[in-house]
Design goal:
Layout lengths: L4 H4 L14 H10 L11 E2 L2 E2 L2 H14 L14 E5 L34 H7 L2 H4 E2 L12 H4 L4 E6 L2 E6 L5 E5 L16 E7 L2 E7 L19 E10 L2 E9 L8 E9 L20 H5 L3 E2 L12
Parallel strand pairs: 4-13
Antiparallel strand pairs: 1-2, 3-5, 3-12, 5-6, 6-7, 8-9, 9-10, 10-11, 11-12
Length: 308
């Protein structure tokens, strides 16, 4: 019997030190525990190793030869429940800490597999978790691309003209139009950004703009600004595996565009459904963080030029 994620996560409600990464890392660790029907973050996916770079190199050729199942309108069928294959406590390589599993870097295309921060941005990243409450711990929407990397189960629903991506954590969701149309005006800023999708062969390509810049990639404080532009690619490798890629560009924060890669594995537990995970703004779990001097995260405007 699958244990409700909301109950498992209560272990993260106590903060040990000011340097701890607070509630969200403990939540993320709890979400890694395998449950019935959910593959643990070990082994292989589509016969490919679960190191992101090795998975990418192995999976891409398979996407070119796999003929995916189709929806009635002829598109590759992404419908179903999915679990992320890689941890994302820190999208760069990280060791064990605070009871959280070690994990590989999700960064694909830099020589050291690290995010190519500008010097001032890197200095800020290195102090981020000592200054701010994690946006995910505050129950804010995860943003993109973290929506695809965040803990707990995922569900994808397709209809002609739309793809809906649901995340169990904090009721987060995305509605992605796939039949064209412009982005919303530039002065509209959104937690999840503004997504516009289209199909390139068997790949769902999603162009994301208009972020409010108030979310992180992970619990380690890796960040972007409201200038970020993300292009995501969802491609079935086989009937039970999605290759996920996100190309990130933010001239305020990085020296160049860069790419991260991850994967989803199908949850095939009979009768499975998403639980209600009642994370909400104003939750009292962050009071301990504020008591040791951490502040709510409000973006990097003004911070990259010399701090608060």
């Amino acid at each position: 019997m699958r244990q409700p994620i909301a109950l498992v996560r209560t272990a993260g409600m106590v903060l040990a030190t000011a340097g701890a990464m607070l509630l969200a890392p403990a939540i993320d660790a709890a979400a890694q525990a395998p449950t019935t029907g959910q593959a643990p973050a070990t082994g292989t996916a589509a016969g490919c190793p679960l190191d992101p770079v090795k998975f990418h190199a192995c999976a891409l050729p398979k996407t070119k030869t796999f003929n995916p199942p189709r929806t009635p309108d002829g598109r590759p069928d992404l419908n179903g429940y999915w679990e992320r294959a890689f941890t994302s406590q820190d999208i760069e390589e990280h060791g064990d800490g605070l009871g959280v599993q070690a994990g590989p870097s999700l960064v694909l295309d830099t020589p050291d597999r690290k995010i190519p921060y500008q010097p001032a941005a890197l200095a800020l990243r290195n102090t981020m978790v000592d200054r701010f409450v994690s946006p995910l711990a505050s129950c804010h929407p995860p943003g993109v691309p973290r929506h695809g990397l965040a803990p707990a189960s995922h569900q994808i629903l397709q209809t002609p003209g739309y793809v809906v991506h649901l995340l169990e954590y904090s009721h987060a969701y995305r509605i992605i139009p796939t039949s064209g149309g412009p982005h919303v005006p530039g002065n509209v800023r959104l937690w999840q950004g503004d997504s516009r999708g289209h199909w390139e062969g068997n790949t769902l390509v999603v162009d994301v703009t208009n972020s409010n810049g108030l979310t992180w990639f992970d619990n380690a404080g890796n960040f972007f600004s409201d200038a970020v532009h993300v292009v995501e690619r969802f491609t079935l490798v086989d009937a039970d595996t999605i290759h996920y890629e996100a190309r990130i560009d933010d001239p305020k924060v990085y020296t160049r565009p860069w790419t991260l890669v991850s994967a989803f594995r199908r949850n095939k537990e009979p009768g499975y459904e998403l639980f209600e995970q009642a994370c909400y703004e104003g939750n009292r779990a962050v009071e301990g963080a504020e008591a040791v001097g951490l502040k709510p995260y409000d973006g990097v405007s003004g911070l990259l030029g010399g701090g608060r």
